[in-house]
């Protein structure tokens, strides 16, 4: 039984690499309607943070509409249809706290993969994560260069992160037990590679604008393009 | 035990307290009372403080010196028997009670007569009608600040409406809410008008906090589930620090806010430049 | 008088090791168990304070050694802020409850009450044993909480909800707080068992001639303490149970509706956090007198004995102790002037608090008069008793600031309070305890402690304590709030970073002096010179028993009391002391 369990992902892996038979899923997330005025964050109450941005307000990353009318920070992932087991990569995902902001604002991570939370600011940040299914944690990092490591044990979309000292700081992690996820960039684009042929439910998640799903089928070796469109909620 | 050794301990006590008294007096002479510079109308607090400081300081020096003098003077001597004084006669009993009573009277009467009760009553009484209103809400570990806007009224809040976009849970269906000016936690500055009564309405979203402005002699716990209140008149222009005085978790030591005191016109002008809540929460 | 007629009695009571030293029902053994457990706790509490002081003196500077000792709590040699709050919580809890309640009352009530009233043991010896072992269980639970992954409780020794009620309010609010609450519940049960015993024994087991008016001041102190404990601890027990219910079973005694913690709504509704503060301080204020009264009464006894003078106005002193005890039940609100409590209540508590300073001032004045024109004998015990006065005076005087509600607005929750309670309750009570240990050690262990080491210990501690806590008054006046992980964040606090280094050095010196005591204590227990029955030439009954007294304390006959406890230097008497058992009549010349 165990042998079977182990060989299955191995077979998939071998298949995916040696034959290059897997599909790639590409796409953009569009924003329809008038883009909202970006929300400004004033860091006046914390002089150190404020100084790092030259005393100027910073724009919030909750709704970022790109120049080309697409949407940034959308987490796109395969919600249903993945078969087999995938083991997490050895290298950690880094969540950096710099300039009193989280970098990146949205990211994906696999179950069992290490998350490195790093403080690049010379002041206290407080990493407060409030997942529903995983174990919550809450830890202070008072000085520059501190690092803390966490792993998640069950898939969860999404796990919120917050700094209680700087309540404007927020980040979201999509925790999955497979590697088929992506986050939209400055052009609103995403790309999921190495998807084995099959039928999948794809979900796009945005922290403010909700979720959307599409069902797609990919064939071996194919590169498929899809598109999501979000609209400003009333 | 030799008599010399006894004297030695007596001397040490004496030496220690004389040195200590001199050091304390020197410290006070050099740095004043150590109170942060007063910038509000609560000078009565300082007056009472200084009075108690002086009386208690004198009592402290007197009693410690008496103690160390006794220790020095009456150090054990084989040739001398102690003075038998059981304190059982009426006169002796009176003597045992009187000084205690006196000490306490001096301290208390001075405190109360300087207006302790009246300033307490004033702080907790009704503020003037035209007072400047500000609401400050604590959460781990930052303060949200809200001004009522031109209508002088705060909109209703409902904790169920609290979200990332609406950190105070303001009910936008309330007319009074639309012009409220809101600074989410950690993003606001407390702008206060000079020489004008200010009412601080204090709330908390999670645990107990306590906004404390040392220069104003202002401290009042922020209790979740309640709105507490205090009022005062800022008397000096400038920037001050607001700290949290009640343990609220790991960030307690840096839960701060900036307080800026400016003339009323400047504060009003600054307020008019801010975006009211009705325009932000879509 | 110096015969060894007790030997047959001892043969009768030959017992196995376990019955004799571990599950003993002998009040003297139980007292020693309390003492040694208390000393261990005292050292743990002190070492915790070193960690805090290190952090305050060297904020943000890595101290690699810390990582070796504390592991994950000081990653990279830097103490975590959440661990700092756990440190203050555990330090406060340990010092107040485990050292100065159990360690002080437990030791001296157990040891002195039966011996000084001429009883053979406590009224309920088995209950007494149980009381120690329940305390021991409380200790074990509290210790375990240090090894919980999220750390020990971190809401301060006052455990204010919602910080303590919501499990993810701070890391320590998780399992650590659960253990804290369980430990405290056990602790309270132990205290109640003890108090019951002390009260019953004092009322019913006094030997012939030992009227209440002839009780040594120590017994009065312990007696009033026990009554206070019996009246106030159950309230905290109820509070702790309610808090456990809020945490585990979804009730809402202390948590109001509509809270949002870390962006997540909290399901509770309808509670009131101020309720806890009333419940807590209803115990908490009497508690500081539960800590103080045994110390004060030990100091009275030691002062009178070593001044070779009667305790001045014994009856007034007893009255003052009773007065303090009674008033301490109605002053709790002075901890809550800025809590949002009704301001009219605030004014009432100002009055009651001022009232309690009457008996306190009277007591301290009487002690001073006791020393006046005495013939002072500077044993280490005496030095600590005098040191107690030296510390308590500034502590009590600074209480006048805090009692005045408007001034308390500025000083509440600042280092002024930290300095105030360390002078009054913490170090003063610790000095009372040291005075007691040095004074009764010969009786407890039958050997003398080293005098020189005792004096070095005294001076190291006395000067150290002053240098640590006196500057904190000024920090507090300048507005530095207490329970701050570092002073770096505000202009009005960062001026003190240099002073903090100074205080920390003093803390290490004072701490080092405690190791002298530790050595002296254990070394003398085995190697000290043998003590005779009455090394201090004292009057009270215990000095008529052997050193150490056998099981059952007295020979076949109980002692009979003929006079009060403080007939020192009576004119006309041959010696400068007359034991309570002496039936001679002294004619004043
Ligand atoms: C070795 C000498 C001691 C030192 C250096 C020391 C130091 C400290 C420090 C640094 C704090 C924390 C202050 C803060 O951050 O607010 C503290 C708090 C406290 N200490 Fe001590 N302390 C000592 C002895 C004692 C003793 C003997 C007691 C006995 C009652 C005591 C009771 C307390 C209490 C109740 C608190 C408050 C805890 C809280 O805020 O919850 N301390 N001490
Ligand atoms: Cu931060
Ligand atoms: Cu706080
Ligand atoms: Cu109190």
What does this structure look like?
Chain A is mostly beta strands and 234 residues long. Chain A contains 2 helices and 18 strands. In chain A, the strands form 5 sheets. A 5-stranded mixed β-sheet of chain A has the order 7-13-12-9-10, with no helix packed on it. Chain A has a 4-stranded antiparallel β-sheet with strand order 14-4-16-17, with no helix packed on it. The longest helix of chain A has 18 residues, at 2-19. Chain B has 282 residues and is an alpha+beta fold. In chain B, 38% of the residues lie in helices and 18% in strands. In chain B, the strands form 2 sheets. A 5-stranded mixed β-sheet of chain B has the order 3-2-1-5-8, with no helix packed on it. The longest helix of chain B has 31 residues, at 43-73. The model of chain B has no long low-confidence stretch (mean pLDDT 86). Chain C has one domain (27-255, 270-528): Cytochrome c oxidase-like, subunit I domain (Cytochrome C Oxidase, Chain A). Chain C contains 17 helices and 2 strands. Chain C has helices at 7-12, 17-22, 27-57, 64-70, 81-117, 125-144, 175-204, 217-248, 273-307, 314-328, 343-371, 380-403, 405-411, 415-445, 451-477, 491-494, 497-527; strands at 260-261, 264-265. A two-stranded antiparallel ribbon of chain C has the order 1-2. In chain C, strand 1 and strand 2 (264-265) form a beta hairpin. In chain C, helix 3 packs parallel to helix 6 and helix 8 (217-248) packs parallel to helix 10. The two termini of chain C are 27 Å apart. The relative contact order of chain C is 0.11. Mean pLDDT of chain C is 90; it is low at 1-12. Chains B and C meet through helix 1, helix 2, helix 3, helix 4 and strand 7 of B and helix 5, strand 1, helix 9, helix 10 and helix 11 of C. The structure holds protoporphyrin IX containing FE and copper (II) ion (CU) (3 copies). One copper (II) ion is lined by residues 209, 244, 246-248, 252, 255 of chain B.
